[in-house]
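Reopening: structure tokens for the S-adenosylmethionine complex, inputs below.
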Amino acid sequence: MISHVVRNDKFRALSEKWSNFLKPYDSEQINISILYDDPCPIFIDSEQRKFQIDFENDRTHYHKRKSGIGSEPLSRALGSGKYGKRVLDISAGMGVDAVFLAQLGYEVTAIERNPFIYCALENAWKNANFQEQLQFVFSEALAYLNSSEQSFDVCYFDPMFPTKTKSALPKQEMLFFKSLVGADNDAESVLAAALNSKRFKRCVVKRPLSADAFEFKNIKPAGHIKGKIIRYDIYSN
Ligand SMILES: C[S@@+](CC[C@H](N)C(=O)[O-])C[C@H]1O[C@@H](n2cnc3c(N)ncnc32)[C@H](O)[C@@H]1O
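Re-run output (same inputs, fresh job):
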């Protein structure tokens, strides 16, 4: 059951729009309240864990110190702009990486398939005062790849990590996020489809440092950039 706790009249129309949007997900398993609080809504699950995306005020995640397009590990994995700056991020999540890349100067389209996460992203983006070239799209990545005619240079994929790893999110937010999103068990086939689409000069996948890279048929990462707990696997086309 999805309930809406609307504190502020200003948000009533928006709440109705979201109710319709979320209807297909209205099942016994999902019990989430949406508490509208200025400026971004807060999601609360049955265990009273809270989840919110706020690009403007969450300085830890969205106002990171950036040393430049040529030196940040994620940017280097994507080619530092050498292959072009149009990025398709097929796993928007909380938008941390998408915002980060846009702040480095990339033009980012970020896809999210989970309606709650997308709702939070959409609203956070509307309330943010950012000038960066970034858009969020509510879609399954494969459906988007099949239907969109937009051109991209590089692709970034950060599926949920399979095992318990350290996270930058506070514990309750991470637990809520995981309970909403699940395990992304289709990650390998999503990557295979992205590579087979031949629409990208490079695809980069974020993995836990200790996890195996995705490998299939004759496709293997052409290189890696390693951090302390994560690794970027680079696939070239
Ligand atoms: C680990 S999170 C990504 C975190 C993100 N990189 C960030 O910086 O906030 C994974 C997200 O990707 C989404 N996702 C996974 N596979 C997807 C797919 N095939 N299409 C669209 N979204 C997908 C999940 O719903 C989840 O929200």
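The mean pLDDT is 84. Residues 115-127 form the longest helix (13 residues). Marking as resolved unless the reporter disagrees.
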